[in-house]
Amino acid sequence: MNCKPLVFIVSGPSGSGKSTLVQKLLQLPGTMLSVSATTRSPRKTESDGKWYNFVSQAEFQEMIERGEFLEYAQVFGKNWYGTPRRWLDEAMAQRKDLVLEIDVQGALQVKKKLPDAIAIFVLAPSREDVEKRIRGRGQDSEDEIRRRLERARQEMLTYGSYDYAVINDDLDRAGAEVQAIAIASRCRVAQREDRIREILKSFGG
Q1: Which CATH number does the domain housing residue 144 bear?
Q2: 52 inside domain
Q3: How many structural domains does the chain have?
Q4: Is the pLDDT of residue 2 over 80?
Q5: C-alpha pair distances (Å), 168 with each of 14, 51, 111
Q6: Closest CA to 122 of 173, 81, 164
Q7: CA dist 152 → 11, 122, 147 (Å)
């Protein structure tokens, strides 16, 4: 495993398919997921502690006051989402790379605090694809769909703040790309420096 665990940020507009690509990243050995905290209610297919920890508004505010979040934001003026700092400590203890699936607001906050984090921006191939995916969930009103599409447009304008962009028009290719980004990042000299020094010592240098 790497000497210095990496942090991978995966974000992108609603409907871009980022959750599926995060699962592809987590298939790589030596990775673990940062479980976000949120005040929203769980969907039918969600269980507490797998992708999200569902907490009350009061609990979330207490976590903010205790400084427990690496980043947090309110989305659409109602629900709060945040990344607990403890996952960074857990990744260090387990010597695993940490994968964060967070929205654009959160990604920009984390990138400021952890400039070495590797930020991956996931895009659907078109507005039509985003709308189709959002409607396919069957969870949003027309007003909510319009808000999500406008927010997606605004979020796409932040692409220049990311290190990599993956266009999710073919799942197999997009999945291979996010895995390739992770594997290449692990091969950077800065990641391998301790091991390189060990090899040099074996040469007596």
Answers
A1: 3.40.50.300
A2: no
A3: 1
A4: no
A5: 12, 21, 22
A6: 164
A7: 11, 11, 8
The phi, psi pair for 150, rounded to 5°, reads -70, -40
Residue whose entry in the numeric block shows the structure tokens 């990599």: 164
Expressed as residue numbers, the domain containing 102 is: 7-34+95-202
> Residue 65 carries which side chain, given as an amino acid letter?
E
Take residue 30 and report the two structure tokens written for it. Answer: 């030596």
pLDDT at 3 (0 to 100): 63
* Residue 123 in domain: yes
Q: Both tokens of residue 183? A: 């594997």
Q: Across residues 190-197, what is the average pLDDT?
A: 89
Give the whole-number percent of the chain exceeding pLDDT 90.
65
Which tens digits make up the pLDDT trace of 69-115? 999 988 777 889 999 999 999 999 999 999 999 988 899 999 999 99
Write a three-state SS string for the chain: CCCCCCEEEEECCCCCCHHHHHHHHHCCCCEEECCEEECCCCCCCCCECCCEEECCHHHHHHHHHCCCEEEEEEECCCEEEEEECHHHHHHHHHCCEEEEECCHHHHHHHHHHCCCCEEEEEECCCHHHHHHHHHHHCCCCHHHHHHHHHHHHHHHCCHHHCCEEEECCCHHHHHHHHHHHHHHHHCCHHHHHHHHHHHHHHCCC
